[in-house]
């Protein structure tokens, strides 16, 4: 029954707000209106076919200069499972597009390091911690195309960086390892891409590695990601003998030559040893397209072979419609196959005007969904999707959805209503910047000196109506630890906490009044470890941390009714509030509703009841952890002309919540993690025994030539110190990754133990 806890985010919703959120879920992109009702949406598109009607209507009215600009623009992200070679791939993209003059490697082995990993910690650890934005140009068929590119982390602990990047991008390149194939974080990234309706092309990397098998990886994309996929290339040679690729659409062989693979030799002479494979995979490509594209299906059913132009057009249509992903292959480290991916970005990923973006416009005090118009001549609408502390102050990254942003002009911050000046406007290239005077619709830029949060909307200073855009999904923290500075001087410590919370919505800080400790929470041990190290490096504050703690949740299992009266009389005006209603478990977000007949409780007191409900969600009655999956409905009550107040009804709700919660068979939930372990085949028995010892549930085992992969579900509580145990069981050759999967009820003995510990803590 605890399947409802798969999404752990906790939000309180009134009936009206629930309807608003439901409306937004149909479109994870955004767009506003500029002159009244002309862009209002009567219904929210739920399929690409419905979106396409609006996209065609918008493009039919776009001025020619806007169409020309959009046709040369691509906003793309590069995402992958950790260690799939994503940053190495990005480094080659920057080199081949002329954005950098030399190739440098991950981990800074050449004392320089990859351009997009600009933090010292990233270069030392060899992982991407923060998403990094850049821009570059690519020439194809004598036309220059402009790419806004964001390189995202592959480690699940930094998943918010992927969320906020995909939220504002139009397309993506999914990098998959040719040896490991689809891994746990690949599945997570796929889910994020689908959440924001982001089309993708796939690049199978590390084709020069022993054990590489691109076609097995494609099978996994089809089966595990449930995304129709087919190769548009086949390799010439394999593993260390990888020589080049065959473009099976055009039937030409492509070889990378020159010191860094920068020169392409394209020839119609296909090696005899792959000729049959080329025709086999070409036929499979056409058959796969026939399943997702009507035009190719008609040609195929008539027994004809579609032309090269028809195949490419079908791939573009199906990719943008999110029904298909074309698969390319190569080796970024060996400088093979990267340029073909850049061509595929141009050919198959959408322009900004080929994606429907929507927003909510306030029209006559009512929020209505509207289309955003990707034209620089319309009123400005932009979304702040990332904050970063720079040497000139807070740097705010903005995606311009409509209109244009000009240096020296003003814009309105929708949340606060404040007018802010755009004093400086820049394009980012990792940690470097280039000043610009103006940024148009569909572009990504950054500006300084704006006080805002991630996900805030900005509109033109003279906008007729307010427009808001939905923010990105923010997962709940699953792990916490206490932290305090070693020295008495806590000024810099507080600055660091405030800054990191503002920049990273998954990093939470709270003060525990019972233990008198500062507690930080995040997505995993590495996530918090990185922040502790950054506090030391960037603010000069050494910290002492406690043991990691699991972020439990509290829930109920049975419905119950409540009738609670809060009464306090001590001379003069007292406190009185009575609330009656129902309390029941639900799937997903917490919910507060009310239906009062006859005005027994006034609107302002009902609002106080809702605030009281929200108070209680933060600290459950059992062990003081957050509450999940509760619906509180107030249908009756009583107030007093003199003694009732907002405070009285807020406190009455507190009492009713506690009373009902404890009567509804409450339980404690613990986070369950999906873990993926890879190790040499000779250690398979050791690894299986280790997982069983932890009480884990093995879900799948895949055996490769030299290595095996085990996928399992384990409670986070059992995984502390797992890295050490795995190293000991595999002679240091095993690797693992984990991500949050769901919340599940704890064992009765653990629940009893946790409650007893919480009671002891209260008495101290």
From TrEMBL:
This is Elongation factor G, mitochondrial. Mitochondrial GTPase that catalyzes the GTP-dependent ribosomal translocation step during translation elongation. During this step, the ribosome changes from the pre-translocational (PRE) to the post-translocational (POST) state as the newly formed A-site-bound peptidyl-tRNA and P-site-bound deacylated tRNA move to the P and E sites, respectively. Catalyzes the coordinated movement of the two tRNA molecules, the mRNA and conformational changes in the ribosome. SMART domains: EFG_C, EFG_IV. GTP binds at residues 80-87, 151-155, 205-208. CDD domains: EF-G, EFG_III, EFG_mtEFG1_IV, mtEFG1_II_like. Belongs to the TRAFAC class translation factor GTPase superfamily. Classic translation factor GTPase family. EF-G/EF-2 subfamily. Residues 71-353 form the Tr-type G domain. Signal peptide: none annotated. PROSITE patterns: G_TR_2. It comes from the Eukaryota. It is found in: Mitochondrion. InterPro entries: EFG_II, EFG_III, EFG_III/V, EFG_IV, EFG_V-like, EFTu-like_2, P-loop_NTPase, Ribosomal_Su5_D2-typ_SF. Its main location: mitochondrion. Keywords: Elongation factor, GTP-binding, Mitochondrion, Nucleotide-binding, Protein biosynthesis, Transit peptide. Pathway: Protein biosynthesis; polypeptide chain elongation. The gene is MEF1. Pfam families: EFG_C, EFG_III, EFG_IV, GTP_EFTU, GTP_EFTU_D2.
